[in-house]
Amino acid sequence: MNVQRAKEIAASPVMANVLCEGTQIYIQHVNEQTETARIYPLGNPEEEREVPLYSLSEQNGALE
Questions:
Q1: Is the pTM of this model over 0.70?
Q2: Which long-range contacts link 54-58 to residues 24+ away (Cβ below 8 Å)?
Q3: Distance separating alpha carbons of residues 32 and 21, to the nearest angstrom
Q4: What local confidence, expressed as pLDDT, does residue 28 receive?
Q5: Are the C-beta atoms of 29 and 53 separated by less than 8 Å?
Q6: Quick check: 46 and 5 in contact, CB under 8 A?
Q7: What pLDDT, in 10s, does the model give residues 18-58?
Q8: CA distances, 11 to each of 16, 22, 62 (Å)
Q9: How confident is the model over 3-21, as pLDDT tens digits?
Q10: Nearest to 38 by CA among 29, 47, 46
């Protein structure tokens, strides 16, 4: 995923369907300098971690 799209998703009030290693995640913050994002699995915010943007993929359609 590119930096601009990750930032758009993080700022959007609509929950996008984004996966990291097959798990649906929420993007908290995007670091443009390091091209990483702070994420956590949906429903599990205590498992927050930083991952490279290339490990994220957006699936078609927003989550309900």
A1: yes
A2: 54/1, 55/20, 55/21, 56/1, 56/6, 56/18, 56/19, 56/20, 56/25, 56/27, 57/1, 57/18, 57/19, 57/20, 58/1, 58/5, 58/9, 58/16, 58/17, 58/18, 58/19
A3: 21
A4: 95
A5: no
A6: no
A7: 999 999 999 999 999 999 999 999 999 999 999 999 999 99
A8: 11, 22, 14
A9: 999 999 999 988 899 999 9
A10: 29
Counting every residue, how long is the chain?
64
Confidence of residue 61 (pLDDT cuts 50, 70, 90): low
What CA–CA distance (Å, rounded) separates 55 from 64?
A: 23
What is the pLDDT at residue 15?
A: 86
